[in-house]
Amino acid sequence: MNTHQQAAHxxxxxxxxGKSTFxxxxxxxxxxxxxxxxxxxxxxxxxxxxxxxxxxxVMPRVARCQTQIWSVAEQILGxxxxxxxxxxxxxxxxxxxxxxxxxQAGYTAVxxxxxxxxxxxxxxxxxxxxxxxxxxxxxxxxVMFEAMESYFERPADGELSGFVAR
Length: 166
Ligand SMILES: Nc1ncnc2c1ncn2[C@@H]1O[C@H](COP(=O)(O)OP(=O)(O)OP(=O)(O)O)[C@@H](O)[C@H]1O
Ligand SMILES: [Mg+2]
Fold this sequence. Notes:
Bound molecules: adenosine-5'-triphosphate, magnesium ion
Structural class: alpha/beta
Shape: globular
Distance between the termini: 24 Å
Helix content: 40-55%
Order of helices and strands: EHEHHEHEHHHE
Oligomer: single chain
Radius of gyration: 16 Å
CATH superfamily: P-loop containing nucleotide triphosphate hydrolases
CATH architecture: 3-Layer(aba) Sandwich
Strand order of the largest sheet: 2-3-1-4-5
CATH class: Alpha Beta
């Protein structure tokens, strides 16, 4: 049983589904503070990144950013403000872990599953790479897209019950 009204909105979904676009809109609608893992990784480690994508290098740094984001997000929730967290959450275990943290702290976890079909997402990535619009953080190559695609665990029906799906 949560003790506060404030919500931690947890935005997740496959590559180029429209998560960052949605998260910006949601933060505006809820007067919430938004945290996006891609923006943090770029700001903290972008200039140190190895030339070729190396998940063994990336994953511990993602974990450090997530820990720090949650530490600040918890303080923001404590002020009575919602937070919109776009942390990756590609695996079911990532989602259940953050949900447990939010609820242990006494707040409500609201999941937003943002999805679009594969061809649409492939096209969106190519267009975003070229246009570098508001939600562009770094180039997503076709190889990266396919790697993320196989790493992402789609929520099964059981996982989504009690979640807000978009
Ligand atoms: N509903 C939509 N209709 C059409 N285009 C969209 C929609 N939502 C997002 N886009 C566009 O598609 C591209 C991908 O969107 P966005 O960057 O929000 O996706 P993402 O899920 O955050 O991607 P990533 O997984 O790489 O972080 C962007 O160029 C964005 O402007
Ligand atoms: Mg994004």
